[in-house]
Amino acid sequence: VKFVYDFTEGNKDLKDLLGGKGANLAEMTNLGLPVPPGFTITTEACKVYLDSGEEPAALRDEVSAHLDALEQRMGKKLGQADDPLLVSVRSGAKFSMPGMMDTVLNIGLSDKSVQGLAKQAGDERFAWDSYRRLIQMFGKTVLGVDGELFEDALEAAKAAKKVTVDTELEAADLKKLVTKFKKIVKTEAGRDFPQDPREQMDLAIHAVFDSWNTDRAKLYRRQERIPHDLGTAVNVCSMVFGNLGPDSGTGVAFTRDPASGHQGVYGDYLQNAQGEDVVAGIRNTVPLAELERIDKKSYDQLMQIMETLENHYKDLCDIEFTIERGVLWMLQTRVGKRTAGAAFRIATQLVDQGLIDEAEALTRVNGAQLAQLMFPRFDESAKVATVGRGIAASPGAAVGKAVFDSYTAVKWSRSGEKVILIRRETNPDDLDGMIAAEGILTSRGGKTSHAAVVARGMGKTCVCGAEELEVDTKRRRMTVPGGHVVEEGDVVSIDGSTGKVYLGEVPVVPSPVVEYFEGRMHAGAEDADELVEAVHRIMAFADRKRRLRVRANADNAEDALRARRFGAQGIGLCRTEHMFLGDRRELVERLILADTQAEREESLKELLPLQKQDFVQLFESMDGLPVTVRLLDPPLHEFLPDITELSVRVALAESRQEPHENELRLLQAVHRLHEQNPMLGLRGVRLGLVIPGLFTMQVRAIAEAAAERKAAKGDPRAEIMIPLVGTVQELEIVREEADQVIAEVEAASGTQLKLSIGTMIELPRAALTAGQIAEAAEFFSFGTNDLTQTVWGFSRDDVEASFFTAYLEKGIFGVSPFETIDKDGVGSLVKLAAKAGRETRPDLKLGVCGEHGGDPESVHFFHEVGLDYVSCSPFRIPVARLEAGRAAV
Ligand code: ADP
Ligand code: MG
Ligand code: MG
């Protein structure tokens, strides 16, 4: 195998092997853009190293060969004393992991070559600045020295000289700083800073490999669901210098605004600076547009390159560049992250520009982004004063208590508080706190700062660079203009879509996208916003493309009507249990307590018209569309009073010698019905078989409701669903009774009701015997919540709190199987049952009604296994429609 690729050998499709950065450096090289020469060590080499603890045997020679070629090309040798070639050693995994992995610049400098560099550049200050940066980065990331020690020494040097920014330090100061830094390395790492350039390079390469497995990197991957076994590539890239004086500098740019999607000049530039200075916020950057004034030639060239890149990648790109004495160099590009709103807008803009087609547009957005756009926003008309304004870095409306460090953010959020994490700027150590917070507020840094990039990636609200806010993390407070002090625990609100910061709680209003789905805002109308327009168009693309139908889980007419507005094509699950609660509880108690069949029938008779009325409304609201009604599922004791409470009542009545006949009977019933394991007990079809008349009453209510709707010239399409069936015999018995009831109602009303009867597949045995069950079922609806419970033997109500966190941390699964369907286990039962069912009954209708029906990844799975529809809660319907469309691309 080949472990090293020159930038001229790769291309953008080799991300698995070369990582995102390496693949795109190669792509830019091949496009003829000015990329400093270099080479990439593959993720394969990293994997061997991480598995065995050693480099693959061939790697050293391959690196040597590529280094030789690089030296030849550059006309100087790595670290050569009189004229050193310097390189950066840069990490770069398949997926970008901002701030997670570490890069070392200026490799090749030593006590000797720093002199050579000074002479060659004619700039002593520059050479020593580069050297101190190398020792600092190398010390921190390769030798594991606490970075603060270097920072403190740098601060001390500035203080001693009474200057505020690093560019004001002169060569002599920097020389002293280098001595100091070397001492820090010696004491802290127990070794000298290596003077041999090749040793520097090799150690840095290993450090990049190792950084794949830092806690920070692992946490980020878990968050982003990036597999842990990909490994990182390492890029070795010849250095270009942005710190060579005012005609040099470094910057970042976007080909479009990653917040709005608008085309234009977006980015930040910093003169006389190197590498991460721009994003670290150590000095204030200028907007990219100012580069035109500073260096028109480079600016024009950059604009042209940006156009080339956008047309080539057919998407928004972000870019890192450096200008060395008026010469522009490209250091990185990738298809850029963007806000959810921008994703929709950019996708439609690119369609309009003729760069991509509708199908491609669907791949540029996703359900998670749509869900994010459906979040509520702040009420603009609320009379709450803004106290500051920063950069709208990641949208959303977040309200919470101010906290000034990650530790507190995590602690408070664990105890149920909503918090806003406020920092001057964030760094990778703040990741826990950022995850725990509702939103993130920083006083420094731009759209490309760590806070902004990471928050956008997590879909978390973020306002950054709110410079008029004075954040004092040590004293846990923030001073706002006018002098008011916000202490830890004070409530603040931040708006990631406008950048506004408010004191106190701002009321929230629904998002325009929800207003649109609700039919209160119309695409095409004059005042419709751009975002709504884009969502409208993308939804149309998805609806044209998708094969899966989307239904709603809804139990009442109000939810059903909303679901219809959101695009539901029927109800996939109407739970009937709420129809037994409230005022009806008493009737149900009587049913459960009945001693004789006559008593039982009495209460069922009273329940019947109530149930029927519920169904009439539901069928009316879903007129012309299928409505799947599930017969009673939960164990009966859920409808009875709590055992402890009831015992107390009985005991009290006894001691007061009050009559308590009924309470006592109730208590006995509760005891009788008490189960150790109710989820595996008397529920679902078992109830229907054990309590005579219960299911037939429900079936009659459904049939009579349908007949009533027919009489009113409606078009009811009811489907009767029997829950928790494990064997076809259960279904056959219920079905026989149901068919009889339906026939009676049809005869009485003189209409054909065309009711279909089917079952939920939610027990492993049902899935395994689906071929038999299909004999008695016209449809299957996979109840993947219970199926997940029963396949794994997990109690859904307990495991999330008890051990799922540990499982997630250990990587046993990347996401809870209750959230995203476990394809290998639960999913293969679904597949098997679907196949067996259709073998018995080719026109068997197949759907899913568990929570998974609205989960993007699961929707793709259900599409692949050939289900007819998914059913989910009304608010998730747009997401399911979109993902069903994406699945069909
Ligand atoms: P990250 O993935 O954190 O962005 P990079 O490898 O891109 O890390 O590098 C960190 C910083 O150093 C970036 O600003 C990058 O542009 C800069 N940089 C990397 N390599 C070079 C180089 N060869 N010459 C000049 N600057 C470089
Ligand atoms: Mg970095
Ligand atoms: Mg970079």
Write the topology of this structure.
Elements: E1 4-6, H1 15-30, E2 38-41, H2 43-52, H3 59-74, E3 87-93, E4 104-107, H4 113-121, H5 124-142, H6 147-161, H7 171-189, H8 197-211, H9 215-224, E5 232-238, E6 249-256, E7 263-271, H10 277-280, E8 286-287, H11 291-294, H12 296-313, E9 317-324, E10 327-335, H13 340-352, H14 358-363, H15 367-373, E11 377-378, E12 386-389, E13 391-394, E14 397-403, H16 406-414, E15 419-423, H17 431-436, E16 439-442, H18 450-458, E17 461-464, E18 470-472, E19 477-479, E20 485-487, E21 491-495, E22 500-503, E23 508-509, H19 512-517, H20 530-545, E24 549-553, H21 557-565, E25 571-575, H22 585-593, H23 597-621, E26 626-630, H24 643-655, H25 661-673, H26 685-690, H27 694-711, E27 717-722, H28 728-749, E28 756-761, H29 764-768, H30 770-773, E29 779-782, H31 784-792, H32 796-802, H33 804-809, H34 823-840, E30 845-848, H35 856-864, E31 869-872, H36 877-887
Parallel strand pairs: 14-15, 15-16, 16-17, 24-25, 24-31, 25-26, 26-27, 27-28, 28-29, 29-30, 30-31
Antiparallel strand pairs: 1-2, 2-5, 3-4, 3-5, 6-7, 6-9, 7-8, 9-10, 11-23, 12-22, 13-17, 14-21, 18-19, 19-20, 21-22
Helix pairs in contact: 4-5, 5-7, 6-7, 13-20, 15-36, 20-36, 21-23, 22-23, 23-27, 24-25, 27-28, 35-36
Domain PEP-utilising enzyme C-terminal: 533-885
Protein name: Pyruvate, phosphate dikinase
Domain PEP-utilising enzyme mobile: 417-499
